[in-house]
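User: Some background: our group keeps a shared notebook of sequences we're curious about, and every so often someone picks one and asks for a predicted structure to add to the entry. Today it's my turn. The entry only has the sequence so far, pasted here. Could you supply the structure so I can complete it?
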Amino acid sequence: MMRLAGRDSKGLAKAIKTTQEGNVVTEAKKTTRQFIGEFKEPYDEGYVGNIAVSGLEIYEKIEVSDEVLGVKLGLTGIYIAYKFRIEKYIEGDTSTPVWTYNLPATNDLLMIALDYEDNVIWTGRRDRDQVIEKINSSNGTVEWRHHDTSRAGAIVTDLFIDKNGDVYAVNPHTANDQTKVEITKRNANTGAIVWVYVHTNPGQTLQVYGTIDSNGYLYLSTLFDFVKLDQSLANVSTPPAVVWSVSRRITDAYGICMFVTVDVDGFIYRVEHDYKWNGGSPARDVHLVKFNQSTGEPVVEWTVIVPNPTNVPITDAHSKPYLDDDGNVYFNLEGKIDSSKNNFWNDVPPFTITDTRMNYLVGFNKVRGYNGDSRYVVYKTGIDTVEYYQMGVN
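Assistant: Of course. Here's the predicted structure to add to the notebook entry:
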């Protein structure tokens, strides 16, 4: 007998045991564990077919035919966003969705977020107008909807929710070589506007993002600066107050600010991107910076060098940092990094991470289907690579 190692059509590590004639033998203790990762070379001389798999253990795997825009992991299920619909799957039974919400006609989805009860907030466009809705997590019905005609042509670049379920949308407008950024807070129960904060920057950019910490302080990440806001006294006529504003202009380089997030200890992580022209070719760096929440000063700053910058998206999930409950950072350009910038993984993740929760990762890969068509596989995995060994025969 012998063992064969390889990959299936979805890129998963596989091993089978066969007779000398090539017939597959059912093993007495067949494992149901699946991994997404890499094979290692045979690790023990004198044996045939010994293999080792190094990868992330898969807990859920969902294959779909339409293009996936994002995946969120909730307390009660996995939520998949497409351009024109949202689906919820229950873990342990992912053969069919629990519910499917189809967007109204002429509506395009841009992004989704989950509140503390797993209700889905999605924002997108109806023609040129902005739309935001809250979808009930239990049955997929609409709880409230707002159609905003005052921001025609503008888009929401970030969406996040506080511990009370109130919703925050970041909305930049560009005109006259300026960027006016609006953060709009909406009531969790009705979607009504609570307050609007306006921040103005020189130059034009749509790369503007925000987040909120456990105490309700807001952080706005713009092209040239990084701002902390106190909303404790804010209302419909009084905007949040600026606590600090830190300049992040990069000397002799064109800079692009990117995503920002907060860990459980209150430290803030911001992604920054810059490039310099060198002999007609851009030299690009992506910086991941850890900030003190009280002062806005950098605590740890390290640079991730992008190996092929012309092919790396700089405004989507590839450039976003994700955090686990221990403060480790998951970065699609680099892998898993701890709070002291030690790298746990030797390579980029084997799929695009789009969310972390309860020490699990979720995301997706685009793969080739059985008939040569493009398909998408959604994963829920552990947060650490696992070494799994399977013995061959002597």
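Suggested note for the entry: The first strand starts at residue 2 and ends at 7. The CA atoms of residues 4 and 16 lie 5 Å apart.
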